[in-house]
Amino acid sequence: MRSLDIAGTGMQAQQTNVETISNNIANMTTTGYKRSRAEFQDLIYQNMRRVGTTSSDTGTIVPAGAQVGLGVKTAAIYRINEQGNLEQTSNSLDFAIQGKGYFQVTLPSGQTAYTRDGTLSLANDGTIVTADGYALNPPINVPNNAQSVSVDQSGQISVTVAGQTQPQIVGQMQIATFANENGLSAMGQNLFVQTEASGDPIVGTPNTTGFGSVMQGYVESSNVNVVTEITDLISAQRAYEMNSKVITASDDMMQTLTNLGR
Amino acid sequence: MENATYIALSRLDAQQRAMSVVANNIANASTAGYKGQHVLFSDYLSRQDGDNVTTGGETQAYTQDLATFRDLAQGQLQQTGNPLDLAIGGEGYFTVQTPNGTRLTRSGRFERLTDGTVTDEAANPLLDRDGQPIRLPAADHDVTVSADGTITTESGIAGQIGIVMPQDSNRMTSEGGKLLLAEGPTRPADNPKLMQGMIEGSNVQIMSEMTHMMQIQRDFQFVSQFVSSEATRQQDAIAKIVQVQS
């Protein structure tokens, strides 16, 4: 019976749906996390009677064909890149991007990764690094004798050194945007890497056209909306149950058929 | 004498297909832009020809599996916030260019490639009113889509999304992947009412599908019971005739 297989594809799809939702809920408080959504497609169709066939010699055309769809498949799990809420932390090395763009960090392998997580700190040599110790790209060094670090909206970092009244500029942050942000591949640890689909990074100065501005003392929280996730979870669970009901019913019908033969 | 069984069997066969259609609806309860399908069965009347038939003829009603029709009701709108997620609030379909030609879809999940071409998830380009792929300037990020489908970015108007109506909504073939092939010409939709940052979900009403499924299941059991009792009746008849003769 076809309906058994069809309901099977439905259960698989809803399972993927629940997995995506639970990852969103698990990352509810992850800085810079962007929620994902599973996207489904109907599978191919079997034509029992083609649309537009004639039903008589005079050329009467049947109003609709008879088609049976063969289920569902997962088409994509895509990220929703809406801005997350900005949370004030008052930490001078916490940065958030308001608008488009990613901070660039250099991985130990030398590859550049991209992140919206601007929870930064200083390494022992004064370099500004992420929570995992990866340096910002281009690297910025804060002198040992710096008393305070300040960043303006365009990402220019200046420090005040003991004994000097004038702040001293130590570096300029660069952020990257992509033609297709959804094409970035998530590698975990709040990091993304570029792919064929995302295109090459377009690197620029924050707060210029097309690039977001840098906010000091803020971090961007995840853009997960718990209420939406929970309602989505409930409907996914219901849909899963319904598909299993279809399996039970189809099984029952098969049983009836088997008994017929006796 | 066996006709009763064959008529019942035609019903069983049809109900089995109805079950597949319901299963497909439930499986696609989360597919964006999916429209629920329903089966349309009709009686198939066959006239018995022959000398010994009384005038007026006797008819036998077989169940004939005629068509599946699409329920075109609006699906639920879900907010996603992605600038290229579009839902059609009124009538009409998006058009996309596939390797096999132009196809229609209600699913408004679009992305853009690195060269700025707006495509669906299978990388089929979204078409504008003139049937040309829509291309956004690659460096632009602020994409605004108005209710009539006009796309505006930082550098001005980038095109107008073509929303079309088929000549006859019933004469469309589902090809899977949310694509529909329209038989016959299409015309621009009058009032597409496009909404940005939203997706039209599937219009499958899970509760009514459930009750429908139970109905099919009961009907199937009833008819199959009829088949087996008919078999018993025939067997009894044969046994009795044999008894009388001997």
State the largest interface: A-B, 75 and 67 residues
**Helical run tally of chain B:** 2
Mean pLDDT of chain A: 88
The helix count of chain A comes to: 2
Please give the largest β-sheet of chain B.
4 strands, antiparallel
Which consecutive residue ranges of chain A, at least 5 long each, have pLDDT under 50? none
Please give the alpha-carbon distance between the first and last residues of chain B.
23 Å
- Overall pLDDT score of chain B: 85
Number of domains of chain A: 2
Kindly report how far apart the N and C termini of chain A lie: 19 Å
The helix/strand order of chain B is HEEEEEEEEEEEEEEEEEH
Helix amount of chain B: 25-40%
Q: Assign an overall shape of chain A.
A: elongated
Strand order of the largest sheet of chain B: 6-5-12-15
State the domain count of chain B: 2
Keywords (chain A): Bacterial flagellum, Cell projection, Cilium, Flagellum
Domain Flagellar basal-body/hook protein C-terminal (chain A): 215-260
Subcellular location (chain A): Bacterial flagellum basal body
Domain Flagellar basal body rod protein N-terminal (chain A): 4-34
Descriptive keywords:
heterodimer, A: 262 residues, alpha+beta, 2 domains, 3-stranded antiparallel sheet, B: 246 residues, 26% helix, 31% strand, LlgE_F_G-like_D1 (chain B), FlgE/F/G-like (chain B), cell projection (chain B), Flg_bb/hook_C_dom (chain B)
Describe the structure.
- The complex is a heterodimer of chains A (262) and B (246).
- Chain A has helices at 2-26, 226-260, and strands spanning 36-42, 45-49, 66-69, 72-79, 86-88, 95-98, 102-106, 112-115, 120-122, 128-130, 135-136, 146-151, 156-161, 168-172, 175-177, 185-188, 191-193, 202-204, 213-216, 218-220.
- With 262 residues, chain A is of the alpha+beta class.
- Chain A folds into 2 domains: 2-81 and 225-261, no CATH class; 85-221, no CATH class.
- In chain A, the strands form 8 sheets. In chain A, strands 7, 8, 11, 15 and 18 form a 5-stranded antiparallel beta sheet that branches. In chain A, strands 12-13-14 form a 3-stranded antiparallel beta sheet, with no helix packed on it. Chain A has a two-stranded antiparallel ribbon with strand order 1-4.
- In chain A, α1 packs antiparallel against α2 (226-260).
- Chain B is α+β, with helices and mostly antiparallel strands and 246 residues long.
- In chain B, α1 runs antiparallel to α2 (206-245).
- Helices cover 26% and strands 31% of the residues of chain B.
- Chain B folds into 2 domains: 1-72 and 204-245, no CATH class; 76-201, no CATH class.
- At the A-B interface, α1, β1, β2, β3 and β4 of A face α1, β1, β2, β7 and β13 of B.
- Chain B: Belongs to the flagella basal body rod proteins family.
- Chain B: Residues 87-152 form the Flagellar hook protein FlgE/F/G-like D1 domain.
- Chain B: One of its GO terms (cellular component) is bacterial-type flagellum basal body, rod.
